[in-house]
Amino acid sequence: MKKIIFYTDSLIMGGAEKIALDYVKMLVEIGKYEIQLLINEDNGDKGNILIDKIPKNVNYQFIVDKNIMEKLNYSREKKQRNIFYKLQYNYYLLKRRKKREKRIKEILLREKYDCIIDFYNILPNDIIDERVISWQHTTLQNYSEKSLKLFKKRLSKIKYLIVLNEEMKEEVLKIFSNYKDKIKVIYNFFDIEEIERLSLDKSKLNKQEEELIEKDYFFACCRLDKYKGIDILIEAYKILKEKYGIKEKLYIAGIGDQKEILENLVKNYNLEKDIVFLGLQKNPYVWMKNAKFFVHSSYREGLPTVVIEGLIANGIVISSNCPTGPKEILENGKVGVLFSVGNKEELAKKILNILENRELLENYKKEARRRIRDFSKEKISKKILEILK
């Protein structure tokens, strides 16, 4: 039996983090491989939200211990307030990197393996070889010249680089045209039946959430960082409220270092009764299902997991046309609504059009049911098996 080391980043609640463990589960179910799971960050009992998703027969270990991660996460939350926390954050960031590189090298020198799946493309350059298959989750558009040189070095050593859509493949080959045979496109896959089942499950909601979910609202779900564009969504909602007097609420699920900033923005606009921050939701699908539609306002992506989940659970998605992924997922506007990145006025108009056009809604739902089949587990597992062979 061949041994695969699967290297992922963390067990926090995030799209790529969930997909990583779905791949681990799929490889176990195939039955041809012994899987060892290496997890970069130990975020403790509260942070390792997805630990229950690790298959019972998979051995796993953390690379960076929770003491370092607790201090890093604490200083990350406080770094906007004063220079001391910013310096502390940079110190623990460096400490995490050094610890990660030392530990991962020790493990790989000790272990015998046939293949490494480097799911975040973060293995140290000096230990990668042709046994490595790396995943690239984000656009290269914001890479510095130094980062691109390191990327090229990695690409020259590894067996394959998996990108999440055709747009990402074109982007990589535009810069690194000599590596065409190494670039493979594989969509993230989804357990469609499981998402549909969870979207109907209200059993874990508390009393307040039960009341909220019965109201008319639209929904966003993401990590609350500056690249997700939640500020643009809030600005668009303000336009809709003041100019058109919409009655629907806006619910936002997620946590992140921009949470306090975004909450203050809502307070400044006196929209606390209309825009509700739901915090971290283990089951966001039930909120997607009961929303009028799902909104994604990101500045950049790879293949945004949550957009596909929105198609599965709800059927109606409005997304920024950011690099890369949304345009391909939504088939250039055939399957869902696209708006220009950072354009709050256009987003407001697109939302209003959806709210007022029932025929358009039904058409998008029909197209979504067709499109989600391209992201099924059965379809993607065949492509993974071909690469592993």
What is the rounded distance between the termini? 13 Å
- What kind of assembly state do the chains in view correspond to? single chain
Question: Largest sheet, if any?
Answer: 7 strands, parallel
Strand numbers in spatial order across the main sheet: 3-2-1-4-5-6-7
Which structural category do the helix and sheet elements fall into?
A: alpha/beta
Low-confidence residue ranges: none
- Kindly provide the radius of gyration, computed on alpha-carbon positions and rounded to a whole number of angstroms: 21 Å
Mean pLDDT: 94
Helix content percent band:
40-55%
Number of helices: 16
Short summary:
The protein is of the alpha/beta class and 389 residues long. It has 16 helices and 13 strands.
Structural notes for this entry:
The protein has 16 helices and 13 strands. The relative contact order is 0.11. The chain is of the alpha/beta class. Helix 3 (66-78) packs antiparallel against helix 4 and helix 9 (230-244) packs across helix 14. Helices cover 47% and strands 16% of the residues. The strands form 3 sheets. The chain has a 7-stranded parallel beta sheet, with helices on both faces. The protein has a 3-stranded parallel beta sheet with strand order 8-9-10.
Primary descriptors:
three-stranded parallel β-sheet; alpha/beta; 47% helix; globular; 13 strands; 389 residues; 16 helices; seven-stranded parallel β-sheet
